[in-house]
Amino acid sequence: MKKKLISAVVAAAMVLTLGACGASGSSGAASNAGAADAAATSGNADGGFTTSELTVNIWDNNQLKGLQQIADEWTATSGVKVQINVVDWDNYWTLLEAGASGGEMPDVFWMHSNTAQMYMENDLLLPLDDYIAADDAIDLSKYYEGVVNLYKRADNGVQYALPKDHDTIALLYNKALFDKYGVEYPTDDWTWEDMRDAAAAITEAGAADGVYGYACNTTNNQDGWYNVVYDYGAQIITDDHKGTTIGSAEGKAAMEMVRQLLEVGAPQTTVAETGTDSLFQSGLTAMITQGSWMINAFYTAEHADDYAWAMLPYADVNGNGACDEGERYSAYNGLG
Questions:
Q1: CA end-to-end span of the chain, whole Å?
Q2: pLDDT of residue 39
């Protein structure tokens, strides 16, 4: 089986797959039909192929149901079966790297911005430009440019993956704990100082119960401290990708706020042992910041009725009590 060439066929069918985290544009059903028709008639760039089944590897079981529905619809049109395999995050990359070394990779698989460059530079992914140009269902202008560019080689401008989704970060809180300790719920007008003060109040009131106001995973930069740094006016990586302003006065002010949040929240030893999600779902922390990719997990959790979301706080660096442009950021990413 020509795995790299076959990958493009279903890649087109999987654009815009999940409403909760998909890009804007036409519906999945319309795109799937177009991709299936293209697959049945055009084959690949060097003369076509035949196969009875495609393998698709993903790492999030929460998305399996939606992806399987799309795959089944595509199978009904194309006649080609799709086998979706869910592999946990750590093993996913181990197996993918082993497959790349041995020449036996899945036909279609999720790609992450952290690893895309390595796979693109080693020519392990199929160039998609010709397929994109030939398929009217694919319009890259409908996606965030930043996500599109994650999967495009800077040296030759070739596109190696299509944006599957984009995500955002929000503040997740437990209403029952806020009620229990007499603290007002978060609002979209909260500053980081407001969040710090609420976390401190809950940590103090909940000490006897082992409850903390906030738990921060410092190893997950996207849903944590990156947002604070940009809120305060600094940049982890400058726009030209050649430097950082983390050491600026703005960057130092941001990291001081991070320090204060950590000081009033769960100890990092506790976070490292248990994890922020487990602490939250166990009722041992009132707030965490979390990405949209985890929405389904919390909506279906045991105490889901107690959970609510608010926008991330902002940094009132202008001191006018209002959220001005540039004072609230949410670090986003997207899979290919």
A1: 22
A2: 40
CA dihedral 327, 331, 332, 333 (to 10 degrees): 160
Return the bridge partners of 287, or none.
173
Question: Which token pair is 185?
Answer: 């719920």
Contact 84, 97 (CB under 8 A): no
Q: Total structural domains in the chain?
A: 2
Q: In this structure, how many other beta carbons lie within 10 angstroms of the beta carbon of residue 35?
A: 25
128 and 173 in a single domain? The answer is: no
Q: Mean pLDDT in the chain?
A: 86
Residue 314's DSSP bridge partners are 191
Q: What is the pTM of this model?
A: 0.75
- Is the pLDDT assigned to residue 37 strictly greater than 80? no
Instruction: List the beta bridge partners of residue 159.
Output: 152
Share of the chain above pLDDT 70, in %: 85
The answer to whether residue 128 scores a pLDDT higher than 70 is: yes
- Give bridge partners of residue 58 from the DSSP assignment: 86
Residue 317 in domain: no
In a domain, 158, yes or no: no
Could you tell me the CATH number of the domain that includes residue 289?
3.40.190.10
